[in-house]
Amino acid sequence: MIKVIQQLLKWFMVLMCLAAGGYWLVKQGVLPTDLLDNFTQSKAELVTYYQWTDGSGNVRITREPPSGNVTYSSFQGSPGLDSQVQPVASKKPADAPSAKVISTYRDDLEATLIKKEMLTQCRWVITQLFNTEKQINNAETEEREQLCKDYRQRLLQLPSLNCKASMDDVKADICG
């Protein structure tokens, strides 16, 4: 009987050490803080979303895939995410040359930052920041002011959502 109790106490100590180690890893930032959300939020609560750019240059996020031959990406997220999306059209000047850029430094940075994020909301904010940045670069003076205001507000969402990406990681010197 005493040996059984000793064995149980040993296993209890091992479990306590593992729990303390896991807690320490989360606090050190080695493990994501929202790792426990995967255990508390069931897969049934997640919704599949589809993201694509329409013919007008608007980024769309909906619960239904686009119709026709449109390239899109899908991801899992919290219900109601699509109602938070307010598409903003990007204007292209009429005389802009039609050249296709394969990849830029900012595109690569965006992809890297999105891969590091665990939270759907953080990935969405980062995507919106980079899209707004592109719109600012193509905007006319009147529209640029409002886009810069939107850009600054979205930047402030990163720390409030506890995103891994910081404002300095994303911020571009486009609004002065």
Please give the structural blueprint:
Elements lengths: L1 H27 L8 H4 L6 E7 L5 E4 L10 E5 L3 H4 L20 H12 L3 H19 L2 H20 L6 H4 L6
Antiparallel strand pairs: 1-2, 1-3
Helix pairs in contact: 4-5, 5-6
What portion of the residues fall into strands of 2 or more residues? 5-15%
H/I helix tally: 7
**Overall morphology:** elongated
Strand order of the largest sheet: 2-1-3
Measure the end-to-end span: 75 Å
Total discrete domains? 2
Briefly note the structural class of the backbone. mainly alpha
Low-confidence stretches: none
Radius of gyration: 22 Å
What is the helical fraction, as a range of percent? 40-55%
Number of strands: 3
Major sheet characteristics: 3 strands, antiparallel
Element order: H for helix, E for strand: HHEEEHHHHH
Mean pLDDT value = 77
Description:
This is DUF4124 domain-containing protein. Keywords: Membrane, Transmembrane, Transmembrane helix. The chain crosses the membrane at residues 7-26. It comes from Pleionea mediterranea. The protein is mainly alpha-helical. The chain folds into two domains: 1-31; 32-170, no CATH class. It has seven helices and three strands, in the order ααβββααααα. Strand 1 and strand 2 form a beta hairpin. The radius of gyration is 22 Å and the shape is elongated. The model has no long low-confidence stretch (mean pLDDT 77).
